[in-house]
Amino acid sequence: MMWFKKSTPPNPVEAVSPVDLAVEFDAGILSDKLQQLLEAMNEGGGLEPFVQALRNKHTLFASTLSSEQLSGLTHDAFMLLLETVFPARRKLADELRALPQARLQELTRALIHGQGSVDERLLAFVDGLGGRERKTRRAAWDLGAELLHFCDPEAYPLMCRWVWDARVQSGALREFIRANDSLPEIPLGQEAAQFEAARRWFAEQLAEKGFYRDIPYLLDLVLAQAYADYVLAMSNGMGMMGSDFGAKMEPIEWVLKLLGIEPERPGKSRIKRASVH
User: Fold this and answer.
1) Residue 238's pLDDT is what?
2) CB 111 within 8 Å of CB 10
3) DSSP one-letter code for 215
4) What is the DSSP string of 124-166?
């Protein structure tokens, strides 16, 4: 089943093909999360403004990182992209500013337009940018995952750690597995093929519910809704630490923050940001 109109991937050597998953997602949970998301978005003008914000983010990434533009990519231009990547923007600014401009261009070009599999290119980007420090490598993974996805949302699934992190067995995908708390381990890896298999299952479910347009963006929103619910549930059980994990935020606010499309808050960011609204 072709669930969206495929564009030509930036790297035609190897597209992402799905594999059979060793986990089963629950259609009922998806229905509940989708309904919750749609109800929350109704207060903000419905689904379209949120999808449009993600379309704008895609346009920003695709135009900035096109093959023609990459040779002139500057630190300032790259910082505009970083500002929209919530898991990385507070952790990689110094490393990126210290990186020679030519090296930044080289790493980004190899990730977006280079040869080899998606997994190989993403890992090379992490090695080149993240070094050996675990925190920096995690942020570099999230940045690389978003660069790929928002350059071409149809070709690449969103592979941020908040979607799924096999190392710590946490992420939005876990929230769609019924009785997941009773499982000693979730047999889901970190490979692009597994992310792709997961999103095709979600897309097929959404098609059965009558959603056919802007599926990559709707999937991003649904996954963010699931992870926002998880974050808030965790914070509510942590007592006084709750505010540190966003307990005072509404779920829809967390959805927008995770996807880097939350409204601007003057004076709250270290990095000048581009508008995706």
Assistant:
1) 56
2) no
3) H
4) HHHHHHHTT-HHHHHHHHHHHHHHHHHH-TTTS----TTT-BT
* CA dihedral of 110, 112, 113, 117, whole degrees rounded to 10: 80
Q: What is the pLDDT of residues 194-248, one digit of tens each?
A: 999 999 999 999 999 999 999 999 999 999 999 999 999 888 765 544 444 455 6
The residue extents of the domains of the chain are 27-258
**Can you tell me which residue has the tokens 């998953």?**
21
The answer to whether residue 184 scores a pLDDT higher than 60 is yes
Give the chain's length: 277
Between CA 158 and CA 147 the distance in angstroms is: 9
Tokens representing 105?
Answer: 């261009």
Q: Give the C-alpha distances (Å, rounded to integers) separating 211 from 155, 156, 206, 233, 265.
A: 19, 19, 5, 28, 33
Question: What single letter denotes the amino acid at residue 123?
Answer: L
